[in-house]
Amino acid sequence: MSLCETQCDTDDAIVALAMLRGRPALEVVFLCFVCVLSLKPQPDARICSQDIILRVEFLIKKAPNLWLNSRLYTPNLTDYQKCPSSTFKCFAAEIKVLTDEWKTFDNIPKFKLNILLGELATSFNQTESECRQCELFKEQNAEKFLKDLLSTLQFINEQYC
């Protein structure tokens, strides 16, 4: 007979056994909790933008064939590094302007690229109080705008994917 059985009644033995099992279990739960808290947050899968890059590359190839004199507010990589969300909101608004203009001259497939860029903008947790309005960015031609968008997307993929 064990020591507990001789000195304790059955209820006390169950409680003692549960406490012996409970303490190691509690330690395991505590260690798991510490591990979960110490994990670094993983990047949002929506931030990886390879599909968007392919669509922008298509538009860059298409741009020289469309003799439009479009001028678009053009954020760049530096703007993205300071204000990622507002930068992509601007890219989304301007890509909508560009594709709407191009639809009148050529049969551009419906990419919904502005929607994808808008969704990408929401992936960044950012306050916009210190960020510039889209209309304050320098106006560039369509080709320069698309190249800046592409370089920003490629930078994001290098960071998060």
Automatic annotation (TrEMBL):
UniProt record, GO biological process: immune response; neutrophil activation; positive regulation of cytokine production; positive regulation of immune response; positive regulation of T cell proliferation
Family annotation (SUPFAM superfamilies): 4-helical cytokines (SSF47266)
Subcellular location as annotated: Secreted
NADP recorded as keyword: no
GO MF annotation: an example: cytokine receptor binding
Entry keyword annotation includes Transmembrane helix: no
Keywords: Cytokine, Disulfide bond, Secreted, Signal
Pfam families in the cross-refs: IL15
Predominant localisation class: secreted
Top-rank taxon, per record: Eukaryota
One GO CC term on file: extracellular space
InterPro entries in UniProt: 4_helix_cytokine-like_core, IL-15/IL-21_fam
Recorded family membership: Belongs to the IL-15/IL-21 family.
Name of the protein described by the UniProt record: Interleukin
Organism: Seriola lalandi dorsalis
